[in-house]
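Design job #97: recover the sequence.
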């Protein structure tokens, strides 16, 4: 290798190392800014319940309107409440009654046009509705994000800013 080539190589190596170092430094400082709190949502469901419930949720198109684990079907824009963390706001029994209602809007009024409202899932078998209710109740939020979750739910349900 000629002297000139060596010099060029040295410059390239220095630039690459510099860029790598810089992006690692940015990663570190991003983490530092967010603290160590991480994602506030978690589920207390067993792996089996989680798997079966998520299959039901997929088969019934819940994510056409709701996001869950911060994911929803990309083409949809229904302003339905986010499902993550709702188990810290409502009870398993409430979810079961809600999924079993022939008119869910009698339990939770809607501000939306008919085609965007929560559909009735009374046609599902009792064990399927119980499974959904049990999974929904398992979707918890950590205390530090509870107020934020309640605010987001209120705003989605009413279209108004929280606090009322
Ligand atoms: C067509 C859109 C749509 C689909 C599909 C849908 N939902 Fe909903 N859901 C809504 C809307 C909108 C609301 C808010 C109440 C309303 O406007 O009727 C809601 C409300 C809820 C609530 C109560 C939220 C709260 O704030 O307590 C739960 C729980 C829920 N849905 C779960 C589900 C599950 C589970 C499925 C699938 C089995 C599902 N939804 C399918 C639109 C939908």
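Job complete. Output follows.
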């Amino acid at each position: 290798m000629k002297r000139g080539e060596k010099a060029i190589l040295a410059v390239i190596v220095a630039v690459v190392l510099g860029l790598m170092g810089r992006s690692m430094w940015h990663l570190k400082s991003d983490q530092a800014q967010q603290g160590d709190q991480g994602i506030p949502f978690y589920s207390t469901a067993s792996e089996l319940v989680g798997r079966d419930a998520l299959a039901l949720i997929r088969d019934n198109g819940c994510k056409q309107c709701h996001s869950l684990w911060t994911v929803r079907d990309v083409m949809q824009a229904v302003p339905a409440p986010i499902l993550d963390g709702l188990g810290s706001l409502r009870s398993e029994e409430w979810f079961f009654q809600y999924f079993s209602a022939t008119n869910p809007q009698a339990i939770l009024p809607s501000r939306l046009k008919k085609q965007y409202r929560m559909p009735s899932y009374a046609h599902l078998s009792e064990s399927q509705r119980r499974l959904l209710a049990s999974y929904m109740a398992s979707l918890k939020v950590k205390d530090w994000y509870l107020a934020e979750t309640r605010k987001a739910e209120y705003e989605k349900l009413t279209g108004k800013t929280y606090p009322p």
